[in-house]
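Lab notebook: predicted structure, single chain.

Context: the supervisor wants predicted structures on file for every construct in the current expression panel, including those that have not yet been purified. This is the next one on the list. No modifications to the sequence; it matches the entry in the shared construct table.
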Amino acid sequence: MDERYGLSPFHHAELFVTLAGKLVELMTFPFSIVPKTDDERFMLEALREAWKAYRAKEVPVGAVLVQGGRVIARGHNQVEMLKDATAHAEMLCLTAGASVSDDWRLVDTTLYCTMEPCSMCAGALLLSRVPVLVWGAPDVRHGANGSWVDLFATKHPIHQVEIRRGVLGDYAADLMRDFFQMRRKENEEKDNG
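Prediction complete. Output recorded below exactly as produced.
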């Protein structure tokens, strides 16, 4: 157990069950988090979405859209499954939120995402009029809130976004790091096997 984060080691988070005569691997959510704030409570929900992506061998990013203190939409990366480069957690979550709200303007909402949004997702967030963004870990390769570029730095003529960074960011970063270590190991085994 990693005492810093309350983590179970990922490789020990595996359970096996027999389903229809086959041994099936189930992985349990690896974090034990007791939220201290609403931001942490909703980011925990986004981390659960990221875990769904992780288990599906997608880059583990998750998002939830909150309105009036409740989650109205969820999303996790589905790029590989849908064969669609735009199937990011935030994009899917914003689309679901617009459907639930029956309006493309997602005013009075907060988007929680486990990673700093990329430029595509940041643009969609601005166009959707989401007033508050809360993200976990920075994305140095694609982050559009200062890690790579900052689409929010210039005052927008119509819409401003309040941003809170780093909420449960260590958990999101650990999940991402473990995911890519696992993928590298799988690729090495494939190359050597």
